[in-house]
Amino acid sequence: VVGYVCPWLISDEVQILRLAVAPSQRRRGAAATLLRAVMDQAYDAGAHWLYLEVEEGNHPAESLYQGMGFTIDAVRPDYYGRGRHALVMVLDLDSEWNGDEV
């Protein structure tokens, strides 16, 4: 298994509950491919927003998400434990995704 993603469609938004790639397969585009597939399916399902949380300071993941159009929407203090905060990131599918990019 190279990686997996667990999206959850709720009304007009999709929450990415988990996104993981095997350590030996990282930095090869697998996470971006998984995200693009979720974006395409979310767009086709009529979702307008895509949300995820990432640990603040996980720079490779933050960079990937920002490069794909996600922006920081909020911070969840101590989400991963004392002093370890989550960044809530959001992608506006209506303005950032045209559904043709998978």
What would you note in describing this structure?
With 102 residues, the protein is of the alpha+beta class. It has a single domain (3-96), classed as Gcn5-related N-acetyltransferase (GNAT) (Aminopeptidase). Helix content is 27%, strand content 36%. It has three helices and five strands; from the N terminus they run ββαβαββα. The chain has a five-stranded mixed sheet. The radius of gyration is 13 Å and the shape is globular. The protein starts with a strand and ends in a 6-residue tail after the last helix. The model has no long low-confidence stretch (mean pLDDT 94).
**SS summary, helix count:** 3
- Looking at the overall shape, the CATH architecture is 3-Layer(aba) Sandwich
CATH topology: Aminopeptidase
CATH class label: Alpha Beta
Mean pLDDT: 94
> What general outline do the C-alpha atoms trace?
globular
Spatial order of the strands in the main sheet? 1-2-3-5-4
The proportion of residues in beta strands is 35-45%
Low-confidence stretches: none
Helix content: 25-40%
In total, how many beta strands? Answer: 5
